[in-house]
Amino acid sequence: MTRPLLILLAAEADASTLSLDEQQTRINEALREQFGLGTDGCARFYLYETFSDYLIARGPDAKLYRIPYAIEGDNVDFGDAQEVTTAYVPVAESCEFLATEGDAAPQSGKYKIRVLKPGWGSGVLGGKTVPHYYPPAFMATVAEALAGKPFGRRHPNQQGPDPTGATDPDRIAGWLEGQSSDAGGAYTTVNLFSAESELRSKLDEARENKTLNLFAVSMLASIAYKPGTVEGKPCLVAESLGALYSVDLCARAGAGGEFLTAASFAANDISAAQSRAVNASTTAIVPNRPNRGGAASATEGASMKSTILRLLEALRQKNAARCAELSLKFATVAEADYSTFLDTITTAFAEPDAAAAASVTATAAEAATQLAEAHRVQSRNRIETSLVASKLSKPAQDLARTHLESVLASEADVPQVKIDAEIASVRTAFAAFSNVGRMRPSSHVELDTADKLTLAMEAAIGVKESMGKGVPGFRGLRDAYQQITGDWDMAKLRGAGGFTGHMLTAEAVVTGDFPNILLNSMTKRLLQDWAELSLDGLSNLYTKQTVGDYKLQDRVREGFFPELSAVSENGTYQEISYPTDELVTYQVGKYGNLLSISEETIRNDDLGAISRFPGKLARSSRWTLKNYITNFFKNNPNYTGDSVAWFHASHSNLSTVALSQDSLIADEIALLTQTEKDSGEPLGLTLDWLMVPPALAATARQINQTNTAGSNAFFQRFGVNNERIYVNEKLTDVTDYYYGTNQANSPFLEMGFLDGIDTPQIFLANQPTVGTQFTADTLQYKAKMVFAGAIIDWRGVGKHVVAG
């Protein structure tokens, strides 16, 4: 018998100078030291094959891994572990299929291609990048549709009136002839039109020089997907093919589409090559199989292994070649797959040579009994896993378990679909007697009204007024979603049930009351945090106005009449001088951003992050408004009424004296002597507030609180607790400061807010058929403020610009 050669998805390097025993001893110790032990107390990785610069190790779930290594002295350094697939192929045949293309003589204009390869796709669906997966079973579906379809020199413009390109003959360069499929993909042959001389020449020369990998092919089709999870990642899984429009030439394929040569068979898909060129009677392909649902105990595994070894010995008497083949295969079978392997051995006894089979009847019967019990163990594991995941109450779980155990009495292997059906039936029965109309885990508080659901969400997100009202907050975002929507399986969130039509792309949506309740709770928390942050007193420095639209706002500042004229006896009253007016305008603008909450955040139960979002939005909104107001003072823009800077010597409100009691006396005199427009009468304004940078805060407070021998004219003039000293961290000049009178005495700055709303708002993008809910499984919220402002006078405010 030809000795098998282990072919791996990596090339073998030069042999090590160490002996095999020395390598294995050092490597096994290093594997145990670096990768540690599993939960069973055994090494997570143990040596399977050794090569000069990499090794093959059996790792978690009994899978094979390729791990690069280097030995320097007594040290072994490992690289990253990469899972590999193995195939056992006789040496002569392994060389044969690597050297044979399959066509007796390549013909110009005819090229074998693989249209699609099972696995992850990296192309686009409907112009968007969406994680998607093509299962092996889908290859046959695609292959059936290939024959006679057009081959294009490029994909059509999918944004045009005909995204499939069916009405664009100019891009068609040939047609597809024949079809086949296997575990490695869907295949066909490209036939180029005779007029495609340029493309023929390129492909023929590339084939001759073994560089066909410079070109790739891509399928354009209408495919229906269903949400699923593959390799632990949520994705769309191809389910059915609506129409295959064309296969087109491209520079880089998204799902394994390529021109085939012998080299591409071997390098890209060992299993596909074997299915075409390797004699099945002398080749055993051994895939790595995952645990099929619940590993047997150590005792069960040992007992099953003993039975398998006895069966193999019995089979040796009947068919030595078949026994050798299965013995080689058994060396790679994980303990969790022993029951499946028992099926294989039992089938082998049913093969020709009944006389030999009769000698092992008793052993086969024992195997059948143990196989049935193994199936029951696996079924019980699946049942328990499904019951825990169902989140049914304990009585409901007990009822479902009892029903399923009765099934196990007659059926050793209970399929998952029957388990799911039983759980669904029990859920429906219990829900009929629920006072809310849907099942909830018994550990959850029954929330039978929308008000209670709202209180629970608000308490969970940190709204103080909703705490202590007898309704505990949700334990997490996942808990909130499930209780509000009743979607305990998270089926609505992942769009369970698939899609009813075939489309260029598809996605799941998130619907129900949950987004709106979360929106209301976030809004309350936002306003709570906004009120706590406030503007550090800056709201006292402007007059608030309600604005009803986005049009230009006009503010007319009128002057005053002069004092009345004296009228002599029998005299005539004179017409009084009309005051002049000044026009000030501004237009409100929008400020805001989007905040997205993904399906992953909900599934990962990240309520902590969500509860912090409103506070962060409040802080962001505060900075936006505070910067806007502060910039009037810092930048000193012109007052539009006279085109002079807001703070200017001609306005008698600009000084260069440092902050002190004396400077404040001068400031108060300046305010008292400011005069009305046109009449020239003194306004007699009072000095009521100071605004200072952090560097001057201590000086201002000291002036306000010190009253040695009653000599301080400004003792507590700015509040007993310094409440009218506004310390503004946005003031960057450490020596400048500002002063003024109350807005009620003489308004100097106006801020207009759309509809009078001077707090940030949150809105929900609540269209489940469009936008981020549809395309990205994301709830999207919008934070928004609409405001603007303008200087409306200069008399009630002043500034000191002090040299540093």
Explain this structure to me?
The chain is of the alpha+beta class and 804 residues long. Helices cover 34% and strands 22% of the residues. The protein contains 21 helices and 31 strands. Strands 8, 9, 10, 11, 12, 13, 14, 15 and 16 form a nine-stranded mixed β-sheet that branches. A hairpin with a 5-residue loop joins strand 3 and strand 4 (64-72). Helix 7 runs parallel beside helix 9 (338-349), helix 7 packs antiparallel against helix 11 and helix 14 (450-461) packs across helix 16. The longest helix has 30 residues, at 361-390. The protein is elongated and about 145 Å long. The N and C termini lie far apart (96 Å).
- Structural class, please? alpha+beta
Unreliable residue stretches: 1-16, 87-104, 159-164, 263-297, 354-360, 434-448, 494-512, 766-775
Question: Which term fits the overall shape?
Answer: elongated
Summed up, the helix count is: 21
Which radius of gyration do the C-alpha atoms yield?
40 Å
Could you give the distance between the termini?
96 Å
Mean pLDDT: 74
Describe the largest sheet.
9 strands, mixed
Number of E strands: 31
Helix content: 25-40%
Beta percentage is 15-25%
